[in-house]
Amino acid sequence: MKNKLSPIVLFAVLILSLAGCGEETQNENPQPEAVEVKVQKPVTSLPQRLNHKGKIQSSKSIGVQSRVASYVDKIFVDIGDAVSKNELLVKLNSDDLQARQAQISAQLEEIEATLENAEKDYERYKNLREKNSVSEKELESIRLKYKSVKSQKAAVESQLKEIKSELKYFNIRAPFEGVITSKLAQEGDLANPQTPILQMEVDNAFEFHFSVSERAISALRVGQDATVEISNGSQQIDAQISEFSSSSLNSGGQYVVKAELINKNNVELFSGQQAEIQLVTDVLDQGIFVPKSAVFRRGGLQGLFVVSPANKAMLRWVETGISYGDHTNILSGLSSDESIITSADSKLYNGMPVKY
User: What is the pTM (predicted TM-score) of this model?
Assistant: First the structure.
C-alpha cells in the first residue's frame, strides 16, 4: 500500500508546482522602458506670411511696330531667334518713297546746274558794275535771281533730307538685345503704327507680377525678400520686391506689385508661367504654431503627441491651418501651455512612457 501511494503523491506535488509557476508567470507584467524624446512648447507668435499667385513676365517686353503705313516686304527673323541691338528685323515696301527721292534728286541736279550759271552771272555783273558797264538795277536783278536759285536748292535739299530720314522707318531694327517671342504679321500684310509686327523681350531677365489688397500693401516695402514657387512646386527662386503701385483706381481695387527674380540656379523660365510668391512681413500673427515635423497624418486625420503630467505620450488629433515656413498653425486640439513631442528615438503609441 505504501509503494502504491508514492507515485500518486509525487504526481500531485508536480501538478501543484506547475500551477504555482503558471500563476507566478501571469503575475509578472513588466513596465515598458521609457523612450527618449525631444519636447517644446508651441510658439504663440510668428512673422506674418503672405502668399499670392501671379505670373512670371519678362522685365522688358515690347511690340515692334512700324511708324508708317506700308506693306511688309520681308521679315528677317522667326520666333525664338536671338537678336542684337540695331539688327534689321523687318523691311517695309518703300517703292513710292524711293521714286519720290529719285525725282527730287534729279530736280536738285537741275537746280545745282542753274545755280552754277546764276553764280557765274552774278560774279560777272559785279565786275561789270565796278567798271560802270552795267547799272545798279541790272546787278540787283542778277543778284536776286542768284539768291532765288540758292533758296530753291536749300528747299529741295531739305525735302531730300526729309525723305532719307523717312526711309529709315521702312527698315525696322531691334531696339535692344533680346529674343523674338511672337510673330504677328506675315510678308505681304499691311503694317500700320497701331498694330505690332513682332513681339520681343530681353533674354533671361524676369519679374514676378502679382496683385494685393489694400490691407496687404501696407505690409510690403521695396527691397523686401521673398520666394517664388513655380506652379509645379518643384522649383523655388529667390525674389525681391522692386516696385508697387500707389493707386488701385485702374486695377480693380488691387495694387500691382513687381518682384525681381534672382535666378541663381538658372532655372528655365518662360513669360506667362503661373507661380506663387511667399513673403515674410514685419507684422506678427498670433496663434498656436508647432514644427511641421511634429505633425503626422493618418488617413484623413492629422495628429501629434503631447507629454502628459505622468510623462506619457498622449495622442492628440488636431486641425491645422496655413504653413509658416517650418511651422504649422494649429487651429484646434492643442493649448499653448502643453508640451509637444517633436522627435523620438522610436515609434510612439498612445500612453507610452517617455523621458526627456
Answer: 0.61
